[in-house]
């Protein structure tokens, strides 16, 4: 009877599905949820991989005709002043050579070398005639005035009070040394160098500095230059 009941059950339930196997505990456990990303701070910029495009330089507009005329006029005026300064420098060089390097045999017995500053100036001031005093002191001062005027105009790198003084003193020392060594009737005098340098200082303050700044306006002093 038992065999018959089993056969009957198989006949009655031919399409019965097998029971599913239980899943392991690792697969049945729920997956952990991903952590939320922290919110960006207010005002923080997002980083982008693409570089920002550089702004294109603006095209410069040509200057108006009035400005072009002014620029042309200033260029011509500058060229005229430079040409006049060159002519004056040449004439001054000839006059300086004639005054300082021409022999004077008649005054050979009256001259002597002076290396003490102020000795010859005191001798000039002690002369009885005021005319002789003015001639000696004023002549040496006027001899150095063109240096102070022409150096800043012709040579922009020579602009500056200290440079004008140093260059004038060096030139005058060379002239005085040449007088004492090679020219008859002439002698080296340190007071002449001092008076010539004072004249160059006077010429620079009166005309050399304004003219040099007008002709070379973009030339700054060494203490105002910025290091690049």
Automatic annotation (TrEMBL):
Keywords: Membrane, Transmembrane, Transmembrane helix. Residues 91-207 form the VanZ-like domain. Residues 13-22, 32-61 have a biased composition (Basic residues). InterPro entries: Teicoplanin_resist-assoc, VanZ-like. The chain crosses the membrane at residues 76-97, 137-155, 162-182, 194-216. It comes from the Bacteria. PANTHER family: INTEGRAL MEMBRANE PROTEIN, MEMBRANE PROTEIN-RELATED. This is VanZ like family protein.
